[in-house]
Specification:
Helix 1 (29-58) crosses helix 5 and helix 4 runs antiparallel to helix 5 (285-308). The radius of gyration is 34 Å and the shape is elongated. An eight-stranded mixed β-barrel has the order 1-2-3-4-7-8-6-5. The chain is 34% helix and 20% strand. The chain contains five helices and eight strands. By secondary structure, it is an alpha+beta fold. It has a domain at 89-253: Sortase (Sortase, Chain: A).
Length: 315
């Protein structure tokens, strides 16, 4: 007789695990704030890098290239005026208009230094970026009285960098619309040195002025006085009397009018930096730098070039 085993006890189904409570939704404000902060920080770094590189380039390589280009252009224009007989011989053009700042008025040559520079009208910082400038309230070289020419010591071609090395007796030649005038160096003056003797009515003097001190940190000026040894040329009436120039055209002066272009170019640089950071998130690293770096560099050069006009004009 077969004995049947009792059936196994029924196993109760496991109780369902309690469902986890839904986590509260995280606010997207913090990530958005972080992204905005990252964008502004990146834009600020881009602006700072562009400005620093722009200043370094403008006061060295790019500034020297700009000076060479402007000198070649001014030389061609001055030669054309000499050939046509319309080169200026005073503060006005041949048709009676006041000369524009930056117009070529003379060719300065100092064989002892190997210097050959076109001299422009005016001594503001923007004019001296292209080469030496003639102080507008003084007679042109070759005429009676003291003619003053200023030039930069370190930046933008540094045309007067070796001016302090000129020995007494050195010959200086200056060509204007009236011919070539020759001068002989008589003294090198620094601040506090005695002034040269007063000129007689039919005598002429040339004074070259540049900065003195450590590179890009001028502490004063240095002057080279030279006496006219060639015939004195007649001088037409001068609308600008001595002293009738702006402070920006004085020695170590700066242009306050440059603030507006600095502000406008800075706005463009900031906008370019923000767009660069936005493109970085959308495109990626290499695509952004290929497109953004040239744009930032161009704006950085423009801002620094405008800001350089706020620095001393003999820098």
């Amino acid at each position: 007789m077969t004995v049947l085993s009792p059936p196994p006890p029924a196993v109760a189904p496991p109780a369902p695990e309690p469902s986890p409570e839904p986590e509260p939704e995280r606010s997207s404000g913090a990530p958005r704030a972080e992204r905005a902060g990252f964008a502004f920080a990146g834009a600020a770094l881009c602006v700072l890098a562009a400005l620093l590189l722009g200043f370094a380039a403008n006061l060295t390589i790019v500034g020297h290239l700009q000076h060479s280009r402007d000198q070649q252009t001014a030389y061609d224009e001055f030669r054309r005026q000499l050939a046509l007989g319309v080169a200026p011989v005073g503060q006005q053009t041949y048709d009676g208009k006041l000369l524009d700042p930056g117009a070529p008025v003379a060719l300065l040559r100092i064989p002892a230094l190997g210097l050959k520079e076109v001299v422009a009208e005016g001594t503001a910082s923007g004019v001296l970026m292209s080469g030496p400038g003639h102080r507008r309230d003084t007679p042109l070289p070759g005429q009676a009285g003291t003619s003053v020419i200023m030039g930069r010591q370190w930046g933008y071609g540094s045309p007067f960098n070796s001016l302090h090395e000129l020995p007494v007796g050195t010959e200086i030649r200056v060509t204007t619309g009236q011919g070539t005038a020759t001068y002989e160096v008589t003294a090198i003056r620094r601040e506090g040195d005695p002034l040269p003797p007063t000129l007689k009515q039919d005598e002429g003097r040339l004074t070259l002025i540049t900065a003195e001190g450590r590179p890009y940190t001028p502490s004063g000026t240095i002057r080279v006085d030279a006496t006219l040894t060639s015939d004195v040329q007649p001088a037409p009436p001068r609308p600008l009397a001595p002293g009738w120039i702006d402070d920006s055209e004085q020695s170590l002066g700066s242009e306050d009018t440059a603030w507006l272009p600095v502000f406008l170019w800075s706005q463009g640089l900031l906008l370019a930096a923000l767009l660069t950071m936005a493109a970085y998130r959308a495109w990626g690293r290499w695509q952004t730098w290929i497109v953004g770096v040239p744009v930032l560099a161009a704006f950085g050069l423009a801002v620094s070039s405008a800001a350089t006009r706020l620095l001393p004009n003999l820098l």
